[in-house]
Amino acid sequence: MSKGENKNMGKWFKVSFFIMLLIGTGYFFGTICKQIGQSYDLILSPSKELLILLLWFLLTLFAVLVSSGLVVALVRPIWTGIIAFALSGLAMLMGWDLTIGSFILVLTYILIAIFYTVSVAKEMTQRIKFSVSPISEGQAILTIALILLACGSLYFGYSEYIKKE
């Protein structure tokens, strides 16, 4: 194997690792959204279970943000990052529920993630030195999208409860 082939294989290994990390954290976030939707009654009565659920939510939120930052900063070409976010959204759906509401929320996440990927890549090509500021500035909107997913899950849980009553 030549040096060029070795370098190319190492690059694709790195890209695959970061994509799998994003997909895994997306699935993990989806399972937490499912738990939030099923635990709507905990919101009205603060307890240890609610605290644990909120800590898991913060952990998965942080994991998705870190893995998305790594994908946006280190995965090239840009279409590879876009595919990674689409696969992450599919993994969220698999961990959550396959309903119209969750599909719409995850589609919103994917569109915002694509916008985030394109804007960070554009900003990074315009800079001479590497800087994390475009990544951290773009993550605010991605954070809002992920929180919107969790709130939507809570809403769907409450709406099912109301329909049963």
From TrEMBL:
The keyword Transmembrane helix applies. The chain crosses the membrane at residues 12-30, 50-71, 78-96, 102-119, 140-158. This is Uncharacterized protein. The lineage of its organism: unclassified sequences, metagenomes, ecological metagenomes. It comes from marine sediment metagenome. Keywords: Membrane, Transmembrane, Transmembrane helix.
